[in-house]
Write a structure and sequence with these properties.
Blueprint lengths: L2 E5 L4 H12 L4 E5 L7 H11 L21 H10 L8 E4 L2 E4 L3 H4 L4
Parallel strand pairs: 1-2
Antiparallel strand pairs: 1-3, 3-4
């Protein structure tokens, strides 16, 4: 497995995801979205894996209304500039990805 966890150090669900993989002895790479956001290629791969923007946007973000009415291409540009609109953690394993804490899905990954 090649696990990448995209999140922030203050996100409770990101910490839970890290703990999930640590407890199972699965190595992972943690990418703090406050320090380094997604590249365009990474973001496109995640969007494809999770079924588009609706699965990736954090509706609980206080500024969510700033992006929800934008066109999809404009939203992608906003996410590249400011990853705080992304629900975390985003966990990738090759081409597969999840958004949020989803251990039931992670169990099925090889």
């Amino acid at each position: 497995m090649n696990i990448q966890i995209f999140g922030t150090s203050k996100c409770f669900d990101t910490k839970k995801a890290q703990r999930y993989f640590k407890e199972r002895g699965i190595r992972f790479q943690m990418i703090d979205l406050k320090e380094k956001g997604f590249s365009r290629g990474e973001l496109n791969a995640v969007l494809q894996a999770v079924g588009g923007l609706s699965g990736l946007l954090d509706e609980n973000n206080k500024n969510y209304c700033d992006v929800k009415y934008l066109l999809p291409d404009a939203i992608v540009e906003k996410l590249l500039d400011d990853p705080s609109y992304i629900k975390t953690p985003v966990v990738r394993n090759g081409r597969a990805a999840t958004v949020g804490y989803q251990p039931d899905v992670w169990k099925t990954w090889n």
